[in-house]
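To make the argument concrete, we let one protein speak, a sequence paired with a row of structure tokens, as a model reads it:
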Amino acid sequence: MIVRQFINWVRTASAGERAEATRALARAWLISDLSDDDRAAAEGALLMQLDDPSPLVRRAMADVFARGMDAPAAIVQALSVDQPSVSLPILEHSPLLIDADLVDIVATGDCEVQCAIARRMRLPASVCAAIAEVGCAAAALELIENAYAELAPFSWDRIVERHGHLAAIRESMLVLEDLPAATRAALVAKLSDTLAQFVVARNWLSAERAGRIASEARDRSTIHIAARSRGEEMQGLVRHLRVTGQLTAGLILRALLSGNVELFDSALAELSDLPRARVSALLNDRGGASLHALLRRAGLPESTFAAFQVALDACHESGFVDSLEGAARLRRRMVERVLTHCETERGATEPLMILLRRFATESAREEARLFCDELAADEAVAPVYYDLAAA
């Protein structure tokens, strides 16, 4: 009887009145103890309201049914593909939408729709992959900030590839503690390229010089990332560097001159296709022949062999760096020792000498900066000590 009166009444009611009445009927369907006949009649009336010309009416149903596990599946499905002003609550909250539905809606929906899906409390890897592949930048940002999103490594990389040039995306990703090292390196590379293109477009630097500066900055950042990576994460980082062409002799030499033996070993293992344990054993051979054979198998230039040999000998004598901070910067004495040797080495090429001189300058400046920081810290502590003594 009530449903019949509702059907007759909505024919002449205003849009606002129809919306409120539809909201009440939807709540009754969810929480009231209706008989089977009344429930069927109410569902029929609600299905009829899907054809209401006013989005206010359909939005009223969406607001009520958005979080309901017992909501009518047919109505939820219809509301999910309605216009965004209606569908957003369903897309963001409804537990009745299956993964395939969400993937299809991501592929066909606009940015607002994609953002709503990216905010869902449970977001499986397949839906995350769809957003990473075709979603707008705003949806990617929502995905990054969603703690419940199951993002696979390839989805992270796809977001970097498509939207890594945007500052908001970079900032949101770089603050994540569990961001894969390979993804972090890809993000840094994207930033380096973006900055290089910017300064070249402004005619502040030549393309060649901007590219060199960007490359050096990228290598420094890579060493910092590697210093915080271990095990499988390190392997993934090294594999990424190889695929992207960043696993160069210069980067590997920088790793060794920073005392980062794990990155050095992993890089040679990746390039030589040998097990890591085998590479470590060869590097512990002090004779030199094993190292040269390994470097040759890894495809590194023979002109760099002497530099690697001297650097490795220096590492064996002084010990490898254990601290994260220490393994992230060049060690000045090692750099100067290698540079001095290569200056008297006939086989040293000019590109290698240029690289080592840049390393020497960088390590000297870094050491000076740390020295000044320590002096400033001591100066800040001294007044406190004198005040306490005077008291």
